[in-house]
From TrEMBL, chain A:
Pfam families: STAS. PROSITE patterns: STAS (PS50801). This is Anti-sigma factor antagonist. Residues 3-114 form the STAS domain. SUPFAM superfamilies: SpoIIaa-like.
From TrEMBL, chain B:
InterPro entries: HATPase_C_sf, HATPase_dom. The lineage of its organism: Bacteria, Bacillati, Actinomycetota, Actinomycetes, Kitasatosporales. Residues 39-138 form the Histidine kinase/HSP90-like ATPase domain. This is Anti-sigma regulatory factor. It comes from the Bacteria. It comes from Streptomyces albidoflavus. Pfam families: HATPase_c. Transmembrane segments: none annotated.
Length: 126, 138
């Protein structure tokens, strides 16, 4: 039995809050769901809240990097928020630096970062 | 078994991604019991997640055995990941960051070695793979 992670829409932002220890299948489903929802909704931003995650291994780390890359291609910016300090330390030691992924300490900072990103990367000039 | 201080080994079947989740949960509780710091718990659970996934994806399934460990007054957790899969022909290469045959990031084995205090890899072409790691409380 694999549950899907809900994707919420607030204006032009999609919000995902991962609350449970994810099976790999669920991680891949989330990646697919998010890509589809970005296109369906025309979202400009994606926020992924991982504050409840006790670990991020290379599989979840790759999903975060992939979602960031896919959403960029589809015209949306992704911010990963709420990473625990122990998770950050472990990720770096594991060898994953999440180079292409925008991060913020919490949801509020993440939304602010998204507003800045969307405004600077969508100037009204041809 | 009150008063039983014999070493108790717990085993988890690694036959799919649900097994990987169960392995993470068991390792977390053993790491807490052994008194590992939050950062060391996180490192051990992450290493276990990588190795459990390797067992499923590359080894074609297998098992994890987990137990409390003691040495020189320190407590820790010892984990064994065993499969009867194809084995690893070139261990040197498999421990290189970024090397992968499974479409992953190639960080599983090398990353798990960095995250653990002790790491032992027993494998060879055609004879399965056994990885043992230990993490000690500081």
């Amino acid at each position: 039995m694999t549950d899907r992670v809900p994707v919420l829409q607030i204006g032009d932002v999609l919000l995902v809050s991962i609350q449970v220890d994810l099976e790999d299948r669920t991680v891949l489903d989330l990646q697919d769901d998010l890509s589809k929802r970005i296109v369906d909704t025309g979202a400009r931003g994606v926020v992924i809240d991982i504050s409840a995650l006790e670990i991020v291994d290379s599989f979840v780390g790759r999903m975060l990097a992939t979602v960031a890359a896919i959403s960029r291609v589809l015209g949306a910016e992704t911010v990963v928020v709420g990473m625990r300090p122990a998770v950050a330390i472990t990720l770096v030691e594991l060898g994953l630096t999440l180079g292409g992924v925008r991060t913020a300490l919490n949801l509020e900072a993440g939304l602010a970062a998204l507003r800045r990103a969307v405004h600077t990367e969508r100037p009204d000039r041809a | 078994m009150p008063g039983d201080t014999a070493r108790r080994t717990e085993s988890i079947e690694l036959d799919g991604s649900a097994g990987v989740v169960k392995a993470r949960q068991l390792v977390r509780s053993l790491a807490q019991e052994a008194g590992l710091s939050l950062v060391d718990q996180t490192k051990l659970v992450t290493a276990a997640s990588e190795l459990a996934r390797n067992t499923v994806v590359y080894g074609g399934g297998g098992r994890m055995e987990a137990e409390a460990a003691w040495s020189n007054g320190r407590s820790g957790v010892r984990l064994l990941f065993a499969d009867e899969g194809p084995g690893i022909p070139d261990v040197e290469l498999a421990l290189t960051d970024g090397w992968t045959t499974g479409g992953g990031m190639g960080l599983g084995l090398s990353g798990a070695r960095r995250l653990a205090d002790e790491f032992d890899l027993d494998t060879g072409e055609g004879r399965g793979t056994r990885v043992t790691i230990v993490k000690w409380a500081r």
